[in-house]
């Protein structure tokens, strides 16, 4: 039927004064254009009707895995197979007068169909990884590495099949053998680009580095913002405006610190300590308690704690004539409580992130009192100003708690000591 229709059109065109060869060419091209239009219409209806139906079904479904497949565009990618398959089936019939052209077009269509299948498999694997992350086992048994290995294997075989179709090879083993023989030469000549390419893929796949990230890599004297990610190098503009160039693959083989997590968290860590002279630590006298009650942020803490301790001592018949008996407040403990309340009330300190005021191990330089909190400010200059303001205040307030900061003797101290002796 198709052949009769085609012959009729050729005769009609020939009767119009066109040569027989030209009439055949015009007829074949016209039919092939119509075939392309039919394929495009088929894709349109597939996407608008079939895909929409699938979307509606998934919306009504109670399970979430089908929603993930929709989000990863698995069905949208597979929709391309229908028009490509129609072209692949009917091209030999429509262009039967041009066997060389048919061979090239069908090889190209085969390669495109393989590519669509590869993309669909990739999207399905991504969906599977996302679904797996919703299970508790994903926290202890990650499969991201295995998914990446599967992708590499699938894409390797897929690319081999595509090349075999494009070059008309019936046995893909020839390509595999050729690649094996040529791989040594490629590795020697293109070592840096290949390593950079592999490193770039890993950086991208694992979301390890993006332009604009702040990274620190002491090995390359890099501490600043990533301004360019190329095939073989990554450029970092340091805070002193110098440029550090890092081999891309080194970011995979060596360690570096990416501060993006800090920026995305909304906070920046303050971790600093001051050393308290251990000789200044003592039990609080009634006069000291009264003094500390007048400190606004401490009043509730001091009163509540004092009542609890007095009740404990009375209940256990503690002899208060000896200060080491029972439980008593110390000036260091109240100072620690003050720091906690002071920073809790500070408008630029995060209450919802890690918040610690703690002692570190005492040593020859006294008792380190560490402040471990997070500021809401992330910009470097403002962050440093905030940190300095906080510790300016802490150093100034230490004597108010009858404590002293430990400091090694300096020249003036020795002068005073020698002057007293004289």
Low-confidence stretches: none
User: What can be said about the biggest beta sheet?
Assistant: 5 strands, antiparallel
Order of helices and strands: HHHHHHHHHEEEEHEHEHHHEEHH
DSSP strand tally = 8
Determine Rg (CA atoms, Å): 38 Å
Query: How much β-strand is present in the residues?
Result: 5-15%
* Average pLDDT taken over every residue: 80
SS element count, helices: 16
Query: Termini separation (Å)?
Result: 127 Å
The strands making up the biggest β-sheet line up spatially as: 4-3-2-1-5
- The general outline is elongated
Output the structural class: alpha+beta
Number of domain units: 3
> Roughly what percent helix?
55-70%
Task: Please give a quick description of this structure.
The chain is of the alpha+beta class and 422 residues long. It has helices spanning 2-15, 20-60, 65-71, 74-78, 81-94, 99-133, 144-166, 173-189, 191-205, 250-253, 260-265, 286-293, 299-315, 331-344, 380-397, 411-421, and strands at residues 214-217, 222-229, 233-238, 243-247, 257-258, 268-276, 356-359, 367-375. A hairpin with a 4-residue loop joins strand 1 (214-217) and strand 2.
Can you tell me about this structure?
By secondary structure, the protein is an alpha+beta fold. The chain is elongated and about 125 Å long. It has 16 helices and eight strands. The N and C termini lie far apart (127 Å). Strands 4-3-2-1-5 form a five-stranded antiparallel beta sheet, with no helix packed on it. It has a three-stranded antiparallel beta sheet with strand order 6-8-7.
